[in-house]
């Protein structure tokens, strides 16, 4: 996440997109749940790219989503993380371990 905030990786060798969040938007907002952003390739929630190229595996899923303002990786299922993230607006126990 920090690397995509600073842009220190420069341009992606595979997609030729800049690897940073600058100019990306919050493309999804669900009241009392979360806001989502981080799609800097298509800017609509269907894209994104990790600093590793493509997607990367899930990391530590043991931290409970038990508060507001938690920064989390957004994905389309197991091991599909890219640059998209979400911030919780309340506790989200239904996402624990997901």
Q: What does this protein structure show overall?
A:
Keywords: Isomerase, Monooxygenase, Oxidoreductase, Rotamase. The protein is mainly β and 98 residues long. It has one domain: Cyclophilin. Helix content is 5%, strand content 16%. It has one helix and four strands; from the N terminus they run αββββ. It has a four-stranded antiparallel beta sheet, with no helix packed on it. The longest helix has 5 residues. The radius of gyration is 13 Å and the shape is globular. The two termini are 19 Å apart. 17% of the residues are buried. The model has no long low-confidence stretch (mean pLDDT 94).
What would a concise description of this structure say?
The chain has 98 residues and is mainly beta. The chain has one helix at residues 2-6; strands spanning 26-30, 34-37, 71-73, 85-88.
Provide key terms for this protein:
globular, four-stranded antiparallel beta sheet, Cyclophilin, mainly beta, 16% strand, 4 strands, 98 residues
Task: Please name the CATH architecture.
Answer: Beta Barrel
Q: What is the number of helical segments per DSSP (H or I, 4+ residues)?
A: 1
Unreliable residue stretches: none
Write the CATH homologous superfamily.
Cyclophilin-like
Give the rounded overall mean pLDDT.
94
Distance between the termini: 19 Å
What would the CATH topology be? Cyclophilin
* N-to-C order of helices and strands: HEEEE
Please tell me what the overall shape is.
globular
Structural class call reads: mainly beta
- Look at the structure and give the CATH class: Mainly Beta
Largest sheet: 4 strands, antiparallel
Pfam family, one: Pro_isomerase
Function: PPIases accelerate the folding of proteins. It catalyzes the cis-trans isomerization of proline imidic peptide bonds in oligopeptides.
Domain PPIase cyclophilin-type: 1-98
Protein name: Peptidyl-prolyl cis-trans isomerase
């Amino acid at each position: 996440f920090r690397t995509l905030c600073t842009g220190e990786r420069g341009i992606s060798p595979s997609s030729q997109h800049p690897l940073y969040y600058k100019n990306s938007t919050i493309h999804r907002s669900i009241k009392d749940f979360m806001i989502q952003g981080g799609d800097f390739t298509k800017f609509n929630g269907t894209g994104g790219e990790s600093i590793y190229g493509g997607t990367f595996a899930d990391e530590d899923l043991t931290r409970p989503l038990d508060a507001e303002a938690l920064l989390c990786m957004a994905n389309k299922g197991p091991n599909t993380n890219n640059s998209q993230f979400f911030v919780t607006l309340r506790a989200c126990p239904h996402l624990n371990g997901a």
